[in-house]
Specification:
heterotrimer, A alpha/beta (about 450), B alpha/beta (about 475), C alpha/beta (about 250), B: about 475 residues, 10-stranded mixed sheet, 13 helices, about 25% helix, about 35% strand, C: alpha/beta, 6-stranded mixed sheet
């Protein structure tokens, strides 16, 4: 049995009945996935990432959404938010907090939307992330039966973050989940969306998520992807964004966990004045592998993109960055900036980076830079002349390296969580939170 | 600037387009083992050489042309190409410049290279390749005094078989890629240079390649070996006459630098780019690679590419020796319907190896160009450093400029920096120049030359002047 | 406090210091003057432990301890602090982080506990006000985007917070306008105390109008060829360095 067949046989065993439009999509996704098969390193898009660990795996589908309540609080972000919780891809209403949604805000699990045979969902879902984008989106299309459908009416300013929490459990039989997220942000609305992937440390599951985010004219969305999966989890995600006139999208793609991680972030800037900011940070150790592929399509004149991705790699970890900026013909007066910096802390870590520019218009300001190196020895020296010992100097500079991305993070609960993880490697007596507090206190004074 | 002015300026004529009327001894189109045997026999080659060619041919049959480049061209019919073309009367080939067919000299004249004058005045030995066969080699005696061997590759195969056998194909193996395999099977000429230990070559060596006969591909093979502590600077200039059909050029250049050796290889390429509708022009699929085999060796590639309809070219450095240095300085200018996918590979294998890449791309008209580069730092390349600067300038809104830099870094003590920009000529720069009384075309040329300065200054003096002139011809009027 | 004896230092096989002797006692301010390339900056860099300098002969003792055997940070914790001529920019590391981490490292070395946050805040606010630095500077990355004068003031601010026993200031006056020079000088003067020594390395006498030295040494070609009181500095200003050299050769 081929790998695609092995995956798809789980589809046939699925329970439940779908409305006809859903069934047709599943069929199309399955057919496409079967035709494509899993990507290999001969595919340019997968040149540095070997997905055999996924292809050779045998993953069941979770049948329930139970989660140990005593472990839940440690997993979730301590944040006041509208919360939707999936456990191994199944909706858990008990852990979710979706009461008291303000007018103009709708958050519902995909299963309910399918059940209600919601026409609006059928229209937008899959428009940006079709079955041709990658074998994984095809696979997701075949399986997706749970996720989050977020709809924001025009002019809505959402008072609290919308928090999508995806938990992964330690199961006897590893499971796969194919969540689907759809955000439709009406004109001029403002919201913060968090996708948080976390789980039990012993979890060894495969998550294959597809998110589609549509921003109408003037909408402003902050999108956080915080990936703290267990060190044995396999994680593939693609996030597709479409932006209307004068809209603004801020992406924070923060990756700390996972054994094998692949993120695709694709933005279509379709109308004048649309603006996107990509902020990325990954910190990998052991034998973790993280691959970030980003693409910004400047399809309209006077659009702006700015990207800053940073990677810190230790031990035998492997990082990949592929950032592409495309400027279509006649998309004049474009500004596109891209920066990728990597810090190698170990001799056996590896980074493969490829910042690409594909440009067909002349009135553009585009630049990219990529640097890989070590900590600045002069800076280490300068700190030591102030009495700070070498390990601490290195820790402080490592933190500073991550800091450039973290400074942009406006949600302190997220920033603290990431800084704590980064600071985890600092010497114990180096009291990071105390420093941060002191800095804040001085600022306030 | 008004767009029609721009159009006018873009519509420049190819100044090197003329056909020399010399009867050629050409084999009919097509390729099989008998054609290869014919080429080998024509060149009086030893048996091992024929076998080497056939081995390459057999591998080539199993290969397919690369498809990853950012290029579009119709499939090439390799059976429609004639693989050998030599000036008639090979037995009474001229022994010195005086005996050279005046028409040939006239050709060089038209190219702006008065061969004997230039050779005498500039002290440059020119190994002129005219449709695949080396016609004359100058200054051989002076070079011989220094112990430098500079001759055609065919002559080297006959006269210095040990050296050729020792090094040929060791940098670019026969089956390295589709075009290199084809070249290995059918190459007809090219240059051979050997600089012995401790010798600094007393003059700059220069070869002018030119494709003349219709439907003949040109497949030169160049092999340069710099022994320990030796140095050489090699210049390559290329032109071709105007033709309606596309002509294939698939050269292979191999450089070997042993301990403390330094090879500087400069190219000015202005092969016929095709007319403004994209008809005709050279398909330039070239494999150039240098092997810094010895410690502290250094290989420097400098190229100014203004010609060819299609360019597929990545001069590379394998940095094996400790503290060896690889350099790549490139200016690529495309106009009309030209397409170029060019760049370099720097493969850091040895400790403390260093590389520098400076690539400047200028795209005008409907042309499309891509920089493609690879910087690879192997696990043992402790302390390796790379700096890459890669800038594109777009002139007009119908062209494209793309950057695909690959970095594969497997050593934490490596430092790799890449910077790239894409922009147009700034209006305020143009305004500033014009406010000083400089007309727009001159201003553009000035700004573009300034943009390319980092690369031009790496060229040997005579070439730098030529390169600037060529740049101005290519860009004539493409202001936007 | 500081005792340098017969110090020979080479940089990339080139001899820079060729038998330098210098003794600095607590409570004193010493100025090292000399022409460019005499080895002035080398001396302070070697004392602070910068890499790339090879001590081929001689000793440096600080309060009886062998400085050359100490790590860079140990020297700083022992109270030896160098103010750089060209302070480095450290993107992302806030000034306040640096100050607190450095201060706590020193306190820990002295067996004291960490400084309580309110006390620390009071201290840095007071000292930055003294250096006429806006508190917002504390939130910015170390020296990043600072003007030349701001960088030098920041160096002195670190001295004021860290309170070294021996403050070495390398060309602290270079690139300063007169107002900034006054601010820097008052900062340095406020450091003067019976238990502390200051070593000024400078090319020009003008700094010494603002910070009056107890001793002035002339460093020429790797050795101290003449020492005197502050009058010597004035004489150097008036007559240049040539005569000292001639005198020393004679």
């Amino acid at each position: 049995m081929s790998a695609p067949e092995r995956f798809l046989k789980r589809l046939n065993a699925r329970r439940g009945e779908d409305p006809s439009w859903v069934a047709a999509r599943r069929q199309a996704g399955a057919a496409r996935f079967e035709a494509l098969g899993f990507p290999t390193r001969r595919d340019e898009e997968w040149k540095y990432t070997d997905v055999r660990r996924i292809a050779e795996g045998d993953f069941a589908l979770a049948t329930d959404a139970e989660f140990d309540a005593t472990r839940f609080d440690a997993q979730r972000l301590d944040i006041d938010a509208y919360r939707l919780v999936l456990v191994d891809g199944r909706f858990n209403p008990g852990l979710s907090e979706l009461d008291g949604l303000p007018a103009g805000v709708s958050i519902e699990p995909l299963s309910q939307a399918i059940e209600a045979n919601h026409e609006a969902v059928g229209g937008a879902l899959g428009r940006l992330a079709g079955v041709d984008f990658s074998p994984f989106t095809a696979l997701n299309t075949a399986f997706a039966d749970e996720g989050a459908i977020v709809r924001l009416a025009a002019g809505t300013v959402v008072d609290k973050p919308i928090y999508l929490l995806m938990l992964s459990r330690a199961n006897d039989q590893p499971v796969m989940s194919h969540p689907r997220v759809l955000v439709e942000a009406g004109a001029r609305c403002e919201a913060t969306i968090i996708e948080h992937y976390v789980g039990e440390p012993e979890a060894a599951n495969f998550t294959n998520v597809v998110s589609e985010i549509l921003l109408d004219r003037g909408a402003m969305i902050d999108h956080y992807k915080l990936q703290e999966a267990s060190l044995a989890d396999l994680h593939v995600a693609s996030i597709h964004i479409e932006q209307g006139r004068d809209s603004r999208f801020n992406s924070f793609n923060l990756n700390l966990g996972g054994a094998l991680v692949r993120n695709d972030l694709v933005t279509e800037l379709n109308a004048e004045g649309a603006e996107t900011h990509y902020n990325g940070l990954f910190f990998v150790q052991g034998r973790q592998h993280v691959d970030n592929h980003t693409l910004v399509n400047h399809n309209a004149p006077r659009t702006f993109s700015n990207e800053n991705y940073k990677g810190i790699l230790d031990d035998r970890a492997h990082g990949v960055f592929n950032g592409k900026v495309m400027v279509k013909r006649d998309s004049q007066q474009i500004e596109a900036y891209q920066n990728n910096a990597n810090l190698l802390l170990s001799d056996r870590a590896e980074i493969d980076t490829k910042p690409e520019l594909v440009i067909y218009a002349d009135d553009v300001k585009c630049s990219h830079g990529a640097t890989t190196g070590q900590l600045d020895e002069n800076a280490v020296y300068a700190l030591r002349t102030r009495g700070i010992d070498e390990p601490m100097a290195r820790a402080l500079l490592t933190l500073a390296f991550a800091g450039e991305v973290m400074e942009q993070v406006r949600l302190s609960a997220v920033a603290e969580r990431v800084e704590r993880a980064v600071a985890g490697r600092l010497p114990e007596r180096f009291n990071l939170s105390d420093l941060v507090e002191t800095a804040e206190a001085v600022q306030e004074a | 600037m008004a767009s029609e002015e721009m159009e006018q300026l873009v519509r420049r004529e190819y100044k090197q387009g003329f056909v020399t009327d010399i009867e050629s001894d050409t084999v009919p189109p097509g390729l099989d083992e008998s054609v290869i045997a014919f080429i080998s026999q024509k060149k009086d080659e030893p048996q091992w050489m024929l076998e080497w060619r056939l081995e390459a041919y057999r591998q080539w049959l199993k290969m397919t042309p690369p498809s990853w480049a950012h290029l579009e061209y119709p499939e090439i019919d390799y059976q429609a190409i004639s693989y050998f073309s030599a000036p008639k009367k090979p037995e009474d080939r001229p022994q010195s410049l005086d005996e050279v067919d005046p028409k040939l000299l006239e050709t060089y004249e038209k190219l702006g290279i008065p061969l004997h004058e230039r050779a005498a005045l500039a002290g440059v030995a020119v190994d002129a390749v005219f449709d695949s066969v080396s016609v004359t080699t100058t200054f051989k005696e002076k070079l011989a005094e220094a112990g430098v061997i500079f001759c055609s590759i065919s002559e080297a195969i006959r006269e210095y078989p040990e050296l050729v056998r020792q090094y040929l194909g060791t940098v670019v193996p026969q089956a390295d890629n589709f075009f290199a395999a084809l070249n290995s099977a059918v190459f007809t000429d090219g240059s051979f240079v050997y600089v012995p230990e401790g010798v600094t070559c007393p003059m700059e060596l220069s070869t002018y390649f030119r494709i003349n006969a219709a439907n003949t591909g040109q497949f030169e093979r160049t092999l340069i070996i710099c022994d320990k502590k030796a140095q050489v600077s090699y210049l390559e200039g290329c032109t071709a006459p105007m033709r309606d059909e596309n002509q294939l050029h698939a050269a292979v250049v191999e450089l070997v630098a042993l301990e403390d050796a330094y090879i500087k290889y400069s190219t000015v390429q202005n092969w016929y780019p095709g007319d403004e509708d994209g008809k005709g022009g050279i398909y330039n699929f070239v494999t150039k690679r240098g092997d810094c085999r010895g410690d502290r060796s250094r290989i420097s590639w400098t190229q100014v590419e203004t010609g060819s309809a299609i360019t597929w070219k990545y001069p590379s450095c394998m940095l094996r020796g400790k503290e060896s240095i690889g350099e790549f300085y490139s200016v690529a200018v495309t106009n009309g319907r030209q397409q170029a996918d060019t760049g370099t590979k720097m493969v850091h294998i040895g400790e403390n190896t260093r590389s520098t890449i400076v690539a400047k791309g200028i795209a005008a008209g409907h042309s499309d160009q891509a920089y493609r580069g690879l910087v690879k730092i192997g696990p043992r390349a402790k302390g390796a450093r790379n700096y890459t600067q890669c800038d594109s300038l777009l002139i007009g809104d119908k062209c494209g400029a793309h950057t695909f830099p690959y970095q594969e870094i497997g050593n934490s003590s490596a430092t790799v920096e890449h910077e790239a920009t894409t922009s147009k000529i700034a209006d305020d720069q143009l305004f500033y120049c014009r406010a000083r009384g400089i007309d727009e075309e001159d201003a553009v040329s000035m700004i573009v030359n300034g943009f390319c300065k980092d690369v031009f200054q790496e060229l040997p003096m005579e070439f730098a002047v030529e390169a600037e002139a060529l740049l101005n011809v290519t860009l004539e009027g493409s202001v936007g | 406090m500081l005792e340098v004896k017969d110090l020979h230092v080479t940089v990339e096989d080139k001899a820079i210091l060729k038998g330098l002797d210098l003794t600095v006692n607590a409570g004193e301010v010493h100025a090292i003057m000399g022409p460019n390339g005499a080895g002035k900056s080398t001396l302070s860099a070697v004392i602070a432990g910068k890499e790339g300098y090879e001590v081929t002969q001689g000793t440096i003792l600080f309060e009886g301890q062998d400085v050359l055997e100490m790590e860079i940070e140990e020297r700083a914790r022992a109270g030896l602090l160098l103010g750089f001529q060209y302070p480095i920019e450290i993107p992302g590391v806030k000034n306040i982080y640096l100050l607190k981490a450095a201060l706590n490292a020193q306190r820990e070395a002295r067996g004291e506990g960490e400084i309580p946050a309110p006390e620390f805040m009071k201290l840095v606010r007071e000292k930055s006000a003294q250096m006429q630095m806006d508190p917002s500077f504390l939130q910015r990355a170390v020296n990043e985007g600072f003007s030349g004068g701001e960088k030098k003031r920041n160096e002195i601010l670190q001295m004021l917070v860290l309170e070294p026993k021996l403050a070495m200031l390398d060309e602290i006056d270079s690139g300063l306008d007169i107002d900034a020079m006054k601010i820097v000088a008052q900062g340095v003067n406020s450091l003067r105390s019976a238990g502390r020594a200051i070593l000024l390395v400078t090319h020009y006498q003008r700094l010494l109008n603002h910070i009056e030295p107890d001793r002035v040494h002339v460093l020429v070609d790797g050795r101290i060829v003449k020492s005197g009181d502050k009058e010597l500095a004035l004489e150097l200003e008036a007559r240049g360095y040539e005569w000292v050299l001639e005198e020393s050769v004679a």
